[in-house]
Amino acid sequence: MILAWLIVVPLVAGALAWLGERQSVRLCRWIALLALGADLALLAAIWLNAPAIDPTVRSGWLVEAARPWIPRFGIDFHVAMDGLGLLMVALTLFLGIVAVACSWTEIRERVGFFHANLLWSIAGIVGVFVALDLFLFFFLWEVMLVPMYFLIAIWGHENRIYSAIKFFIFTQASSLLMLASIVGLAWINASATGEWTFNYFALLGTDLEPNIAMWLMLGFFIAFAVKLPAVPFHTWLPDAHTDAPTAGSIILAGVLLKTGAYGLIRFVVPLFPDAAMRIAPVAMALAVAGILYGAVLAFAQVDFKRLVAYTSVSHLGFVLLGIFAWNELALQGAIMGMIAHGLSTGGLFAVAGALQERLHTRDMRRMGGLWLRLPRMGAVALFFAIASLGLPGLANFVAEFLVLLGSFAVAPAAAVLAAVGLIFAAVYSLVLIQRSFHGPAKKEIRATDFDRREMAWSAAMIVALVWLGLRPQPVFDAARPTLEELGVPAVLSDEGAEP
Amino acid sequence: MLDMLWLVPLLPLAGSAILMVTRGELSARTVAVIGAGSVGLSAVAALLVASGFLASDGDTVRSGIATWIASDRLVLRFGLHLDALSLVMILVITLVGFLIHLYSTAYMAGDEGFSRFFAYMNLFTAAMLVLVLADNLLLLYLGWEGVGLCSYLLIGFWYKDPANGYAARKAFVVTRAGDTAMLIGLLLLATSLGTLEIAELLERAESSWAVGSGIATAAAALLLAGAVGKSAQLPLQTWLPDAMAGPTPVSALIHAATMVTAGVYLIARTHTLFSLAPDVQLAVAVIGALTLLGAAFAALAQRDIKRILAYSTMSQIGYMFLALGVGAWSAAIFHFMTHAFFKALLFLAAGALILALHHEQDIFRMGGLRRRLPAVFWTFLIGAAALASVPLVTSGFYSKEQILAGAWAFDRGGALLGLAGLVAAFVTSVYIFRAVFIVFFGPQAGHGDAADVALVDGRGESTRGGRIALLLPLVALAMLSIVGGFVDAPASAFSDFMSTALPRAETAENETAAVMLEITAAIVSLAGIVVAYRLFFPHGGRVKAPAVRERAPWPAALDRLWASGWGFDRAYDALFVKPFVAIAAALRGDPVDDAYSGVAAGLRAAWRGAAESQTGELRWYAAGMLAGLVIVLAVALLL
Asked: pTM of the full predicted structure?
């Protein structure tokens, strides 16, 4: 049950951090850090010893465990991890540590409760990435949202209540549709087999009328599209990001959005392959719209965090495009895109938080020339901006190139339009740097440059982006068994095309 | 020797990494040693590789160290590829690069970003070397984008002035438009041929695509778009004059000698694709001809010495494109090499002027500097002579003459293309000697008390070490500008060597025609100098700016048009920039969100209406019930 520990450790640590607040504020921070570090060690143990832990695991998977939970409806505590889940959990824990490090001096109110919410949210997200019982999945899907709501509503900025409620309503309304679909699917399966089950593997082969499959698929699709977020369901995101505390933004952008993409790969296409392929053109159109629309809106913003939030819409458009192109290149690109976006955008949000902590503003009209006083911070921000515009040699480029290549093979027009987004990405990334760090220095700005703690998390993320940009193969190798199990096709021919 | 190939790009990369990690904590001296030394060592490695390559039988060398991306059937390595073409490129990049780095140690002395400058310059050199050594197109693209990034960073190096930032962004975004087209070209090639490895890809293309087929045309056209952006050719040329906002050594290295010729390299490297798409190859020639003419005229009307050189660079790369387009492959690379020598020389000499005059760049505020800065005068003069292709004694003459010969021999409108080349050669002589006469002759001008004008470094000091660092590169490049042409004349050693990598040009069979052309080119070049002398030599008084001169050699409207670079900036501003900004401004509030806000507002209104109806008055409730009853009955009766 090593997977259960992955969820339990942050859950318990969250409670401890809450209690520990009375002792000392530093204690809470260290508890959070240690818990996430321990979880990362557990994950490493799974990765290194996978076959030894669970020799009977089904092919394509690393570990699996199941215990009955509500037997009357065939609901189990059923968790399993494959390469895809492993990558996502690793990203979650890594960014969790960064989030704690970024909040070290930013959060001063109710520190214990803050870390409790952060850890519980992370526990929920980890759970989502390993749950293979659809009911459990839904349960954990909700678990990750409530603490996030509190993070925004309590520790957020000016408009926090509005943004937190908007976030909550969008995700709740859409997850209601998913719940209906889950129950519907289980019911159809139960009436065919005479036995209730929410087991992912059991439901995989359910026979469905095309029409019914379409409706059930849409329930899942909308829930995941809202979370991703895909245009036109994205409008909760800029508000939530702008008002969330730094750690909230990092977790939100870095991993919470990825649960949407994960859900599309894990559930939507495998459970409803035909229906999903029927809406693929629509999904790809939405993806391209998101890439371009998000990029244009990012350029238009004057609020640092809001600008970065809209770039997320644009980047996740590439992920959506890759998923619905549904071939090996595109999916490898989409998975790499999730990781790369988590690092580069998480980095930009962390910089935004550091700026707000120093300048008490996110308005770029009041910045400018910061490089002069904050050269280290400027260099870090420049790096993340460059990563985000897709410079080759960094992780984002690998992702975007593979997504474009995979989608070009099946839908050249969509790929070409998406590529135009790369030009826009250059525009908004460089404008971001110009408005904040370049230009003449404003006189009234007094601030200290990045200290050692801040350089530490910056360096960790920079190294990760460069490493994945030059050696992406470990990620591909981890994801490949998953894609093979899903029957993802290859598209390139070995020989030259016919004359 | 050949196994040192990896050191060539890795040494500058290491230099850059050290300078970035230490972030200005090293002493200026150490920074200079690392910055210039890493490129110097890289040049030594390149020379050793060259000797090894020449000693071997000239076979292509390939060396891969690791897999980069492997997915589906696509396998991309970190692999290098060395043949005659790459070898010439790395020699020019490292040697000219080293001289410019050396010069920069004095030019940038005292700048607060000294370490940052060399970090970026070294990174640029590494990326440029990767670009020309890459054995697959994606690794080439990595270098391609890397040099673009460094160009952005160095144009905007003095970041406090927003104009520099604007110029830097403009350069990056305009070239990225071309880069994106090129990336789409890569997608097309990879999906239709199943590989991006250059040699394999060209082989497959040749065996499976017919000459003139749609797919070959599309692929070549997309690569051409990338080349046009990087090499500042029509219609993506607008960024280059503004790129002069960067420090002058940057202009010399990136925006004259190396990066802007990446497009030439790309087309030469993938020449098979262009041969399969004759229409696109013709387009290469036409773009080159139009650019070389247009930019030459634009250079005539500039006042800023660096902008004269920028338009000149554009024009000279136009010659290289013309050569590529007419199939004179080796001539294009030959001209790349000679141009790297004399244009770097011109920029470095201009930089010395600019420093001596306290950052004055307007030629109409200069004058009579021949006596005050003799070394700069003579080296600039040599560079100008090479650019104007003064016959026999300059390298520019030999390389340009080959291009013109190639154009004449071309069977699709060769005469017209050749004529364009000749006319522009004349204009080239005029514009560069206009600058020479105005800047160096006549009475002392501008900083008129300039008795103190002397060779100074970036601090404004004239130290011995600084003078050497400035002069040595000038002298070396001046010598190369003179003798660089003899590698291919009179004996054709260079083109023989290049023919191991690129197809030989079809030469005109007619010996007399070739000689006639050579003589014509020589006359045209000298005529231009004479005309420049008549128009611009300051006989007695100073030459005034066209705006204040009574008798301008050409109409004022034309002068304005040329000065603005044919008005492209305004057109693009109206066509692309303004609409984009307007659309962004219109969408700023995210109209999609208005729909949701509308739903929320509707619900709130409904809630308020429902709340209003709760008046607590019995009569209202009774009336409401009655009305409801009536409606229900009415509906029941009517249906």
From this structure: 0.91
